[in-house]
UniProtKB/TrEMBL annotation:
SMART domains: LRR_TYP. It is a single-pass type I membrane protein. The chain crosses the membrane at residues 862-886. The lineage of its organism: Eukaryota, Viridiplantae, Streptophyta, Embryophyta, Tracheophyta. This is Receptor-like protein 12. It comes from the Eukaryota. It comes from Herrania umbratica. InterPro entries: Leu-rich_rpt, Leu-rich_rpt_typical-subtyp, LRR_dom_sf, LRR_N_plant-typ, RLP23-like.
Amino acid sequence: METIERRLPRAAGTNCEGTDLVAAGENIGRLIRMLCQILCLLLALLHFHVGCSLSSPSSFLHSAHLCLPEQKAALLEFKNTISLDHCWKSASYPKTNSWNESFDCCSWDGVSCHKVTGHVIGIDLSQSCLNGTLHANSSLFHLRGLQRLNLAYNNFNGSISSELINQLVSLTHLNLSSNLFSDLIPCEISLLSKLVSLDLSYNGYPDLRFDSQGFVMLARNLTELRNLIIDSVDMPDVASLSFLNLTSSLEHLSLRDCQLHGEFPSDVFRLPYDGPLPNHVNGLQLLEAVWLSNNLISGGVPSWLFTLPSLQELDLTYNKLTGPIEQIQKPNSVWKVDLSFNDIHGPIPSSFFGLVDLETLRLSSNNLSGVIKSNLLAKLKKLGVLDLSNNSLLSLSTSGNDVNYSFPYLVTVSFSSCSIRQFPSFFRTSKMSYFDLFNNKIPGGISKWEAEGWEELVYLNLSYNFLTTFEQFPGKNLLILDLQSNLLQGPILSTCLNLQNPNPPQDMRVFLISKNNLTGNIPPLICNWSWLEHLDLSRNRLSGIIPNCLGNFSQALELMNLEMNNFYGKIPNSFAHDLLRNLLLNDNQLEGLLPRTLANCSSLELLNLRNNKLTDTFPHWLASLPWLRVLILRSNRLHGPMPNSIASSNFSLLQIIDLSHNELTGPLPTKFFQNLRAMKDHVSEDKRHSTELPRSRDGKLHGHDYYYPVNVTTKRFEIELVKTLIIFTFMDFSNNLFCGEIPEELGELILLQGLNFSNNNLTGPIPPSFGNMVWLESLDLSSNKLSGRIPSQLTNLTFLEVLNLSQNDLVGPIPHGKQFDTFENDSYSGNLGLCGLPLSKQCEPKPPMPMLKEDEGSETAFIWKVAMMGYGCGVVLGLSMGYIVFTTGRPWWFVRIIERDWQNNVTKWIRSI
């Protein structure tokens, strides 16, 4: 106790601290002795309990299998509040049917208990056909000792309740995947500090989402987490650096379709295999699989990999292999080889085709070259999958014996983006369902004889070749046909929809034949494809009217592209499809009114009707479309004013609007601009579809990515937006008859990249609020009647590349600095009142402001003098008083305060050490 007393500081002005500390020490000693006695008693009771348990096996077994009554009641209550739905997987069955009050709940299907206490510690109700909502008062949350909870592959909906997290704090494994959960994942999930595995994947993207704060807390607090699976959880605002906090424990991470952006930290992927593979190895006689994908392996592909006697699978995808494939002396019986996505160069050695047991061969996306002879390829008779795509210097050779070669198991063949110059007819004897020859150099045509050999085909891609004829459809099972960018001529009917074909396909899903030289009308046979999802006949020379029968596609149609043809007449009223997302009828000769039935296309995102002869007013009724992002009505005959009474939620997702080259009148619609939320802030990803990547209803792309371009005129040039469409924001109201002043509200569109109001009758000043549009790259206000000065705030637009203010009535000096120093004379021509660089007209200097001598008469100067005098006196007086106080010790109360505060601070610092 004396040691304790000496270590504690004495407070100034007291004389009895030592006595108090001794008394406190004695109390602490008595408390410690009492705790020791209690601990001994507990140990004795525990020893007695264990002894009794060991001496009575029946009692132990009884407690190991009997769950607690209150927990059984909680489980039964949960069963009664959750309904059973259709089992959507073949392996699903209602596990809760075994939950009967007559039996011990520890014996119920999907329930596991602690062997000693009988507490329910695990619930596995995955694939149990359950349907309902986990409400905050769910009895399931009464199982406080629950460690494992698996509710995957059911139909639970609503939000993930924070009560699940607040009460089930003992969880180590939580799986809520493949349900219908939505809304924001509660940040309280970070309180589950014992979690080892968390799976929230595939809950109806993009309805379930993480925000930045919630994920940062999770990554920081879940220090035991080894498995994190959050596929299709929407998290566009989550910084990728947040994942660095998980690297200490994480073993498995899956982030598919999470909308993450930015550079992902490489430290998350620890310990990658780096460098070349060894030239030779000893042993490994029993090695069956080598999986080294997604590493940094360099060098060539050593031959010893293909001589290991037990090897069955080899996967070296996504590495940095650059050397050739070595000659193989004694090929083994490997059945799967995948070397895709490397930079392997040189030819495929002939010995490679001695791997006669190969069933899957993928060498795509490399730099392979040379010619593959058909007789060598024919040795691989067991092939089921062959993918040599994206090897631009690789080609095939054929011979007169090709028809005798047999590939009885071949299902998938891809030679896209190679250098094939002749159609490989030796595949005719296979049972292919997937055949891809995209982007090659195949001339001529596909004969009827060749097409008859493809009876099993489901997918056929011959786009971007030099085909001139394609006589008929192959078989009757074809779902996807891509013939884009060839040299096909004549009517579609005679090109490939040959009526003499006895079994034309009836369930076509994707038909793409754009960028050819087709003529004639749309054949009625197309209208029989009632399940068609994508129809692209664009950029041909087709003519006639658009048939009303295209409305038969209402069951599945997502995209219709008829742009750049010679169609005339009216747009059919049959376009009223719920699933239609992209409608492109631009650059034709269509006339009349816009069909009001378009307002029923509730999924419409892109509507392009530019360069037609449509005569109508502005289609304000399109404001009811909740997903509309691109609206292009350029170069038609629209007339009249734009209504200014539009509800606040309408057009909120609009990113591109082009109304130029029409006859619209009246003032610019202020409320319309106020509604354009997607141009004001980053709309959350749950409000975005993918206009540029049309997908089927199962969410998968059909074969290659299909991009549908949109042309806009910006930066004085017409550009074609393809992949950048989803991030581009643009507004063009030029070449109309708009009048009045430019609304200040336009300055709120801070994400706008291109703005064109040229060639109208606009008056008044340029709003200074334009300086807020910091992403603006092109601004054209030319050929109006704008007046006043150029706002200096425009110098804030550091991304501005093109500025055109010519042919107005602007006056005063031209601002300088940043981007304004890069613009030439033509940006300001026709404004006689402007002066300053880059114009030759100089601005008159401003007269100097009258100044009093040394500002002696200035009230401000007097105030400053007084302030400085006070400041100087205060410093001198303060230093003098400080010296007197601390040398004389008086006044004693002031010294005591300073001494006590100093002593307390020192004490806190010592304790912190």
